[in-house]
Amino acid sequence: MNQVANPRKPLRLNVGFIINSSIGTNRDFDIYFPKYQDDDLVIAEAGGVVNVGRTPQGLIVQGNFSGKVTLECVRCLTDYEHLIRWEFAELYAFTQDNVTDSGLLVPDDAQIDLQLLFREYALLEFPIKPLCREDCEGLCAECGQNLNQGDCGHSPEVDTPFLALKGLLENQHNDELD
Ligand SMILES: [Zn+2]
Ligand SMILES: [Zn+2]
Fold first, then answer.
1. How far is the CA of 159 from the centre of ligand 2 (A)?
2. Does residue 85 contact residue 65 with C-beta atoms inside 8 Å?
3. Is residue 110 classed as helix, strand or coil in its secondary structure?
4. pTM, whole model, 2 decimals?
5. Closest ligand, as measured to the CA of 143
6. pLDDT tens track for 138-177
7. How far apart are the C-alpha atoms of 82 and 168, rounded to whole Å?
């Protein structure tokens, strides 16, 4: 049986019972948000599982999540839904002696708040150049038509020979002027 997370703050885990368990004990917490919102970050159907395991030094907290974000395609400038998956594994140490570079300690009240980790690791998965699909056709440079929705007649295959011809004619014209 997975633990039922705090329904109002699903990313705040009560880990007191794990701290008091024997080494090796671990539990899964189910996390789900129909719509997760944190400042500018909005993720639909965001959720996954957090596993918390007891070690001699502290608690290993591992999260595996997925969700849908709305992004703007860099080629056709259309909003589309993008699936992201993210995960993390961090040690929440019992004492300062065992603390990792992340600097995480088990709080005195035994409530671990994962909101910051959840947010930061999700942001890392945002693509630098979002594409609505791998072969997005983009916009026509001539008329701005979204080429995924149909050809406007300005396709490069048609343009190239004419542009080359136009270039030749202009060069010829310039030569005549010299
Ligand atoms: Zn696109
Ligand atoms: Zn066009």
1. 10
2. yes
3. coil
4. 0.78
5. 2
6. 999 999 999 999 999 986 654 555 556 555 666 665 555 5
7. 45
Distance in angstroms between the alpha carbons of the first and the last residue of the chain: 87
Q: Which two tokens stand for residue 136?
A: 């997005």
Considering every ligand atom shown, identify the ligand nearest to the alpha carbon of residue 150 and give its number.
Answer: 2
pLDDT tens by residue, 76-103: 999 999 999 999 999 999 999 999 999 9
- Choose among 119, 118, 141, 138: nearest CA to 129: 138
Backbone angles phi, psi at 129, to 5 degrees: -120, 85
Please check whether residue 80 is in contact with residue 71, taking contact to mean a CB–CB distance below 8 angstroms. Answer: yes
> What is the C-alpha separation between 165 and 6, in angstroms, rounded?
70
Give the C-alpha separation, 155 to 53, whole Å.
Answer: 58
Q: What is the pLDDT of residues 99-124, one digit of tens each?
A: 999 999 999 999 999 999 999 999 99
Half-sphere exposure of 147 (CA within 13 A, CB side): 17
Q: Output the CA 148–ligand 1 centroid distance in Å.
A: 8
Distance of alpha carbon 44 from alpha carbon 133, whole angstroms: 19
Residue 95: left (phi > 0), alpha (psi -120 to 50), or beta? Answer: beta
Amino acid at 138: G
Ligand whose nearest atom lies closest to the CA of 152: 2
